[in-house]
Design brief:
- Strand 11 and strand 12 form a beta hairpin.
- This protein has 2 domains: 257 residues, no CATH class; 165 residues, no CATH class.
- The strands form 4 sheets. A 6-stranded antiparallel sheet has the order 2-3-4-5-6-7, sandwiched between helices. Strands 1-8 form a two-stranded parallel ribbon.
- It has 11 helices and 12 strands.
- It is 31% helix and 12% strand.
- The protein is globular and about 55 Å long.
- By secondary structure, the chain is of the alpha+beta class.
Length: 437
């Protein structure tokens, strides 16, 4: 399907940009674009994002992320992984990390440190829970982003070892070239890209370049990814390879299993619901990490207190985070067209925190929006709990005010939904700061 009117010079400049990005470092495998802070775009040096500053010490502080804790258990002999084959090792690793294999999303664009191994014939798989994002390429290395409550993303890469050897896990600094770059706010988080892969590798177009989160329209998502369970969802960029000829782009279908054996992976799909959840989580994590770095820097520069201008700025960031938490700008789903893989939904609900009426923030709606009670389940996540107490308190205060309000910017939430969310939060948030806010 030709896209007419393309300017060849514009296309070539995009190719050079994408080539530069791909050569810079490893993307945990989420094609689409992300920005931690729109205002940070173009800044060459950002004070709050100096990872070596005393208030951050990203490379020096003891780590408190779940993958580091897992490695200690492995070293102590408390964990035994299955070494019979690559896929058996992956299954056992996911199980030990508490990651459902049904979160599997498959990506065939070369947006990774291991780009030479990725192609439509050998897609990369991404798996995740609330705290860990894991990339797997058949024949390649395992990639991990593990969320430290204070520091944000900690990046690891390692070979699948044979049965006689423990894994030699590297904490990767090369990943920071893409995961903490100026256009992303310079703080370590999750990168999401949506590109149109070329037939011979690389990318010939890119979409929603500086956006990540549930507000991004489906029509701009999934470029370079396989998507299953999307019948009737409408136009998007998933399952397509591009061809550039005389300045025009045409696309070729590339469905799951068309160019590779799906048996190389634990799950036989790349479900649209797994994509939607991943998009929401990445948007939440990135906004939260940026807020944490800003808050610590302003507290330090103010002599362990906040200057008035910094307090105003951080209140604005709390407002943005609360709006995101309440799905204020969520892109509409095509009504009734997203059903979701049943095993994924079952696994996702297993860890739900429920109130006395059996309700939770993980309850799906899937009519034209994701959740029945539109407040993010990521409010329970360690990365949110890692925010400074006074910043969390501001978020909780604004959240409670929003749920008590009528009309205004949160009018899309009915009074009944607001009451349900408030009751769920009162019953399930075990943060003393919440009670005091």
């Amino acid at each position: 399907m030709p896209r007419q009117g393309r300017n060849l010079q514009r296309i070539m400049s995009r190719l050079l940009l994408v080539q530069a990005i791909l050569g810079a470092g490893f993307l945990i495998g989420i094609p689409g674009a992300t920005v931690f802070s729109q205002e940070a775009e173009g800044e060459s040096k950002i004070a709050y994002a100096d990872l070596d500053a005393p208030e951050h010490l990203y490379w020096e502080k003891p780590l408190n992320d779940p993958f580091t804790a897992f490695l200690k258990r492995l070293e102590d002999g408390d964990v035994v992984l299955d070494h019979r084959s690559e896929i058996d090792y992956l299954r056992s690793l996911l199980s030990e990390l508490g990651i459902s294999p049904h979160t599997q999303t498959l990506v065939f664009s070369t947006t990774s440190l291991q780009l030479s191994l990725i192609s439509p014939r050998n897609p990369r798989a991404v798996y995740y829970n609330d705290d860990i994002y894991l990339g797997y390429i058949p024949g390649g290395r395992i990639e991990v982003i593990s969320m430290d409550p204070e520091l944000g993303g900690i990046f690891y890469i390692f070979d699948i070892p044979d049965v006689t050897q423990p894994p030699r896990v590297e904490r990767s600094d090369r990943c920071m070239n893409c995961h903490a770059k100026p256009s992303l706010g310079n703080v370590p988080g999750v990168v999401v890209k949506s590109v149109l892969p070329g037939q011979r590798g690389g990318s010939i177009d890119t979409f929603r370049r500086n956006e990540i989160g549930h507000h991004v329209e489906l029509s701009e998502r999934f470029g370079g990814w396989h998507v299953t369970g999307d019948d009737g969802v409408g136009k998007h960029w998933g399952d397509k390879i591009g061809n550039l000829f005389q300045g025009d782009i045409t696309t070729i279908d590339n469905k799951v299993g068309q160019n590779f054996s799906i048996d190389k992976y634990p799950v036989k799909g790349s479900d649209i619901l797994a994509h939607l959840l991943l998009e929401h989580q990445a948007g939440f994590v990135n906004r939260t990490i940026e807020a944490a770095y800003r808050a610590r820097t302003h507290w330090k520069t103010g002599g362990n207190k906040l200057k008035p201008e910094h307090r105003t700025e951080l209140k604005e960031h709390a407002t943005r985070l609360v709006r995101y938490m309440l799905f204020a700008d969520e892109a509409k789903l095509p009504r009734g067209k997203v059903t979701g893989d049943e095993e994924l939904k079952t696994d996702f609900l297993k860890i739900a925190k429920v109130d006395g009426n059996g309700r939770s923030l993980r309850d799906f709606d899937l009519s034209d929006h994701l959740f029945k009670h539109r407040c993010s389940y990521m409010i329970y996540s360690p990365v949110f709990r890692g925010l400074p107490d006074w910043f969390r308190s501001e978020c909780y205060k604004q959240l409670k005010d929003a749920l008590r309000s009528s009309g205004g910017e949160f009018s899309y939430l009915s009074a009944a939904e607001k009451r349900a969310i408030a009751q769920i939060l009162m019953a399930t948030v075990k943060d003393p700061v919440f009670s005091d806010s």
